[in-house]
Amino acid sequence: MIDLHTHSSASDGSLSPAELVRQAHAQGIRLLALTDHDTLSGIAAAQSAAQDCGLRLIPGVEISVSWQNKVVHVLGLNVSPDTPALQQGLAFLAEQREQRAQKMAQDLEKRGLEGVYAAVKALAQGQAPGRVHFARYLVQQGKVRDLRKAFKHYLVRGKPGYVAIQWATLSEAVEWICQAGGLAVIAHPARYKVSRTQLKRLLAEFKTLGGHGLEVVSGSHSRDDNFQMARLAAHFGLLSSAGSDYHGPAHPWQKLGQLPTLPAECRAVWEAF
Ligand code: AMP
Ligand code: MN
Ligand code: MN
Ligand code: MN
User: Fold this and answer.
1) Pair type for strands 56-67 and 2-6
2) Residue 224 CB: number of other CB atoms within 10 A?
3) What is the pTM of this model?
4) How far is 22 from 16, CA to CA, in rounded Å?
5) What is the mean pLDDT of the segment spanning 223-228?
6) Which segments of 69-146 does DSSP mark as H helices, in order?
7) I need a surface site. Which of 54, 113, 155, 190 has the fewest CB within 10 A?
8) What is the pLDDT of residues 54-109, one digit of tens each?
9) What residues are in contact with ligand 1 under a 6 Å CB criterion?
10) Which listed ligand is nearest to 74 at the C-alpha?
11) Distance (Å, rounded) from C-alpha 153 to C-alpha 132?
12) What is the pLDDT of residues 238-264, one digit of tens each?
């Protein structure tokens, strides 16, 4: 069993890296990638837990990219965590994320909340806060019933607490991943709110830049999405990946490792590890 897209408390997941690895192992997963948003800070703890339980841990990262006024996520799989180019790139994104968090907090404070930044920073356990940490805070404050409502009424374009941010370029993300000896994979491609023409343009550009793969099977895709993405992967000569995008038991709509197998025509990205 394979799962190449998961999050820990090093970004916006709710389990610690070691807990995530133990839970994955208990579910029968034997090849797991930890792919926290814009950080490698959970990898060392995950590696050591993986050694203890006999699971192969692939060091990974999910890089936030701004492309044509949209946010696109690029997974770096099997990266060397001690690569300066990757580390410097991610440090820049962490700084952007910090600045965004301060602006988001100010925006929410204008609407009557207090001490938002400190509370969110505590929820993020000192890491650069993401929107999920704000969502958890809004639930705790009784502003919304659950995380999904937090994203419906806050934190998205046009709603309180939304602050746009310039992430990495597509070219930078691929470059950092390649320098770290990893494979660059477009995450959950069917989830972007773009036309099919635009998605094809993204994949063509990604392929030209040296991108390797497409996350054909994703916890956030429908069965039909999986089959359509398999066709696109074949069309663009991209390898296929599979990942749940698990964020922990507090996000019950994504389950760890319970993924359908890759459609038959796919070439699996993990053959290249
Ligand atoms: P950020 O990178 O801080 O902008 O946050 C992006 C993260 O927010 C995603 O990786 C998801 O974990 C989470 N997210 C985005 N939209 C939603 C939503 N509608 N419901 C729940 N979580 C969401
Ligand atoms: Mn997330
Ligand atoms: Mn993502
Ligand atoms: Mn993810």
Assistant:
1) unpaired
2) 9
3) 0.98
4) 10
5) 98
6) 84-109, 116-123, 131-140
7) 54
8) 999 999 999 999 999 999 999 999 999 999 999 999 999 999 999 999 999 999 99
9) 12, 37, 64, 130-132, 147-148, 151, 247
10) 3
11) 13
12) 999 999 999 999 998 899 989 999 999
Strands 183-186 and 70-77: antiparallel
Q: Helix, strand or coil for residue 198?
A: helix
Q: What distance in angstroms lies between residue 112's CA and the mean position of ligand 3's atoms?
A: 30
Backbone angles phi, psi at 189, to 5 degrees: -60, -25
Count CA within 13 A, CB hemisphere, residue 90. Answer: 28
Q: If you ran DSSP here, which 8-state letter would residue 191 be given?
A: G
| Amino acid at site 226 | N
Phi, psi (degrees; rounded to nearest 5) at 32: -130, 135
Q: Which CA distances in Å does 234 have to 119, 152, 271?
A: 46, 35, 16
Query: DSSP secondary-structure letter at 62?
Result: E
Cα separation, 122 vs 9, in Å, equals 12
Mean pLDDT, all residues of the chain: 97
Ligand 1 atom nearest the C-alpha of 64 is: 2
Atom of ligand 1 nearest to the CA of 62: 10
CB 1 within 8 A of CB 32: no
Q: Quick one: which ligand is closest to 64's CA?
A: 1
The structure tokens listed for 167 are: 């992430």
| Most ligand 1 atoms within 8 A of CB, residue of 6, 9, 12, 72 to mutate | 12
Q: What is the CA radius of gyration of the chain?
A: 18
Residue 61's φ and ψ, nearest 5 degrees, are -155, 150
Tell me if 246 sits within 8 A of 7, measured CB to CB: yes
